[in-house]
Amino acid sequence: MSSQTPADSTNSIENYEKLIRERDELNVRGRQETQLKVVSDVQLRLDRSLQTVRQSLDCRKCHGLLFQPYGLVCEHSVCARCLVELKEESNPPRCPKCYTEILLPPIFSPHLHAMAVSYAAYKGDPIPPPVEFIWPEPKPELIEKGIKRYADEKR
Ligand SMILES: [Zn+2]
Ligand SMILES: [Zn+2]
């Protein structure tokens, strides 16, 4: 057993201080890693909820963002651009998703439109100009038929 020389004790103080510094650095790094992990977890949750939002803003025909969306009698929604196409494709027009005949006039959904605009703004995507179109006044008997069928389906 050799006794400690002054050089040894200097060394051990230096070692101690070095270890303290290393520990502090590790602590800082650990905190940074924890913060990064928290940030990436939050980002992941944000991405997932954005995905959900995006899915609910999906036009059933073109799968673009639901700008100027119209709710159909079957409760699916299409953008105005697609509604114009549906009107030209068949008479009566049909829902592109479930092929229900659109016998009742589609209803504009301002909430979905506002969400689509916010989503596009968040993504930095352009917002298309409004589409002008006229949905023909449905014949009264078509409205009757539509309401009856809608009521039957809801039962
Ligand atoms: Zn569309
Ligand atoms: Zn539908």
UniProtKB/TrEMBL annotation:
Residues 59-98 form the RING-type domain. GO terms for molecular function: zinc ion binding. InterPro entries: Znf_RING, Znf_RING/FYVE/PHD, Znf_RING_CS. Keywords: Metal-binding, Zinc, Zinc-finger. The keyword Magnesium does not apply. The keyword Zinc applies. This is RING-type domain-containing protein.
